[in-house]
Amino acid sequence: MSRNHSPVQSAARVTMDDLAREVGVSKITVSRALADHPGVREATRERVRAVAEARGFRLNVAARNLRQQRTRTIAVVIEMTPSHDRSMSEPYPLSLLGGILQELSGAAYNMVLTTMAVFERAPPAVDGVILLGQGLYEDAVDKVQKSGLPYVIWGSVDGNEDHITVGSNNVHGGRLAADHLLFLGRRAMVFLGETRHLEIADRLAGFKTRLAENGARLMATLHCPFTEDGGHGAMKALLETAPRNFDGVFAASDAIAIGAIRALQEAQVAVPDEVAIVGFDDAPSAVHCQPALTSVRQNWDEGGMLLARKILDLTHGRAVKSQAMPVLFKARET
Hints:
Order of helices and strands: HHHHEHEHEHEEHEHEHEHEHEHEE
CATH superfamily of the largest domain: Response regulator
CATH architecture of the largest domain: 3-Layer(aba) Sandwich
Strand content: 15-25%
Number of strands: 12
Shape: elongated
CATH topology of the largest domain: Rossmann fold
Number of helices: 13
Strand order of the largest sheet: 2-1-3-4-5-11
Radius of gyration: 27 Å
Number of domains: 3
């Protein structure tokens, strides 16, 4: 009986050696052709692919990646602790994740989603890391650095030259918020947000600079979580501590701003007639709250795609630079 492969041979038994003999090329040529290597002529690539498909050959991607010391997988590490009032189904980080997944899947890469706490305990086998959030005083960045893997960060680009970072132009966003409040005639301002996060510190820096340039005053900076409850609690405490001496508020996120509006309304302070408010993010909730929230918009979808492109470039040894994305001011009712 002939030892040649029969037409009914199972796909699992077809090897690159079999394909090489049938096409009349070397095994390495078959491997390169299936990987779409530019060093193989197009006619040969098409012939190899046609024979492979006809024989039911399936490349063992896992084995190939192991030989190349690549997993074709990127870890996305979220630096936040989910809670009942701040879930991972919010626009941040969900919109960023959508952009990342779109770009990685288009490049035939897998994505592993995890939190900072889990990544520290059991780092996955990946080619690189995308970190969403720098943490307090960049503590999350320090933890990712220890993995020894290539990484990119979503966060503050200004003053962060030691890392490859993608983020919004937060300083300019702060200036835009100040410009709007000044245009409305507001002269005494309050800032709400946790400035130990570099992004928030940048927003405050831009805000303060513009106020100072125009002779307006920053009456208070209130540290609070990125939640409606955080904004509500901070504003309520401020109103209960002393008579109101401010007429404008810049909140570091829309959630904080919406919470602050609720506290002002409960205290019978009219928004925006007595106190005007600007948020940051332009999340869907900004449009639906009452009154509709004026906000600074971040383009999270584009940010996610940029993060993915840059980590792929890094893992392939290409030069990469940090990138600050423009923000857009969305004036509404507050």
